[in-house]
Amino acid sequence: MSEKKFYSHNTLKSERHSITNIEPVLADLRSKFAIDDTVFYNIMIAVTEAVNNAINHGNKLDPNKKVQFDVEADNEKIYIYVKDEGNGFNPQDIDDCLEPENLLKASGRGVFIIRELMHEVKIRSNSDGTVVEMTYFFK
Asked: Which residues sit opposite 13 in a β-bridge?
C-alpha cells in the first residue's frame, strides 16, 4: 500500500461564519483517505468545537485576530492544530461538565467533546494564545 499524505494550512478570521471553512478541508481529507462517516463526523465535530472556542473564547471575535487551522495526515493518523491569538487560559480551570451543578449550563462542553472524540488531545495556553493539538489514529 502506498503512503498517502495530506497537508492543509488555513488562516481563519475571528468571525462566526469562518466555521464554514472547516468542512471543505476535512472533505478533501476524507476523499483522499476514504474515511468512513462515523470517523469523519467525529473529527468534524471536534475540529468545529476547537475552532469555535478559538474564535469566540480565545480571540473574543476580535476582527484583528486570526485562528490558524492546520491538518496533516498519513496512512496512520490525522493531526489537527488549532491556534488562537487570545490571552490564554488555564485548561485545569475548565469545569467538569459531568458534575451535577454543570449539567444544565449552556456552555462548557467543548473540550470534553474534543477529548471524547479524538485519540490524543494536547492543550497549551499562555498569554500569546491557546493551541489545541488533536490526533486521530487510523489503527
From this structure: 66
The C-alpha cell that represents 18 in the structure block: 469562518
Rounded to a whole number of angstroms, the distance between the first and last alpha carbons of the chain is 15
pLDDT in tens, 76-89: 999 999 999 999 77
- Model pTM score: 0.89
Fold of 5-137: Heat Shock Protein 90 (3.30.565)
Q: Check: CB of residue 113 under 8 Å from CB of residue 39.
A: no
* Count of Cβ atoms closer than 10 Å to residue 106 Cβ: 5
DSSP string for 100-116: GGGTT-SS--HHHHHHH
**62-66, long-range: CB within 8 Å, 24+ apart, which pairs?**
62/14, 63/13, 63/14, 63/15, 64/14, 65/14, 66/11, 66/12, 66/13, 66/14
Give the HSE-up count for residue 134: Cα atoms under 13 Å, Cβ half-sphere: 26
Taking phi over 0 as left and psi of -120 to 50 as alpha, with beta for the rest, 15 belongs to beta
**Which of helix, strand or coil describes residue 34?**
coil
